[in-house]
Amino acid sequence: MYQHIDRRHLQKYSYSMEEYPFVSCLQNLYGIQDLHNIHKYIPPYTDSIQGNDSSTLMHKIFYSNFQTHIKPIYVSFMSFVYPILGEGFYYQNVPCVRFGLPGISWLTSFHKDSDYNHPPEELNINLAITNSYGTCALQIEQSPGSTYYVSLNQRPGEITFINHINCKHGAIINKEDYTMISLDFRIIPESLAHAAFSNNLSVLTKVPFRPGGYFSANAFRDNQ
Predict the structure, then answer these.
(1) 139-165 confidence digits (pLDDT tens)
(2) What is residue 199's DSSP assignment?
(3) Residue 162 class from Cβ within 10 Å (0-12 exposed, 13-18 middle, 19+ buried)?
(4) Residue 53's pLDDT is what?
(5) What's the rounded Cα separation, in Å, for the pair 141 and 163?
(6) Which pTM does this prediction carry?
(7) Is 201 a member of any domain?
(8) Which of 18, 49, 153, 164 is the most exposed place for a label (fewest CB within 10 A)?
(9) Cβ density class 50-65: b for 16+ within 10 Å, e for less
(10) What is the pLDDT of residues 12-30, one digit of tens each?
């Protein structure tokens, strides 16, 4: 029924970093040109923070500046996604930002997003801000239930669709000498919206999976 998710899994696309300047925006936001070395400019993580992947100072800076600095780029990026999808879609209002610092695991556990109330009609897009290779990358099943994990290897200017609903994914200890930074966001194809939307709440944000809640109030279409 949801073959659109399996069909897209691990498909990769390149986009223009000049047209969609996510990287330069974050460089300006953090005042750091070499974002892969951001761990050298922040206080060390404590044991209590390592188990929480969204409460650090880096996350707070990102989310507190999202509306003003990042959202215009993010919304315009949907024009890049549209021809790939080939139909209108709803998009996650605020993307997730990930920081995989050396020496830690940046996700608390391996999981499927279906374990956390996410609708099965969702597609997930992962967007690289820094290089993402080997142990610092997201680890995800190559196919649902396969238990064979691959690293989501990417470089800046690339996105990858992943089947986050049916494929287990997580992070391992980052043994690379740099920080991985990425964005990820969910979209709902307009043709599946009626089945997808519900009053179920996101486990983390407590926001309903509905337009104007977790997702954009209106579907993004080609004329936007």
Answers:
(1) 999 999 999 999 999 999 999 999 999
(2) S
(3) buried
(4) 58
(5) 9
(6) 0.92
(7) no
(8) 18
(9) eeebbebebbeebeeb
(10) 999 999 999 999 999 999 9
Alpha-carbon gap, residue 69 to 55, rounded angstroms:
20
Instruction: Let me know if residue 173 belongs to a domain.
Output: yes
* pLDDT for residue 50 is more than 70: no
Q: Which two tokens stand for residue 100?
A: 């995989």
What DSSP line would sit under 70-108, residue for residue? IHHHHHHHHHHHHHHHTS-EEEBSS-EEEEE-TTS-SSS
Report the amino acid identity of residue 223.
N
- Whether residue 218 lies inside any domain: the answer is no
| Contact between residue 161 and residue 9 where contact means Cβ atoms under 8 Å apart | yes
- Please report whether residue 212 resides in a domain: no
Q: How far, CA to CA in Å, does 72 sit from each of 66, 97, 123?
A: 9, 16, 21
- Decide if 118 contacts 165 (C-beta within 8 A): yes
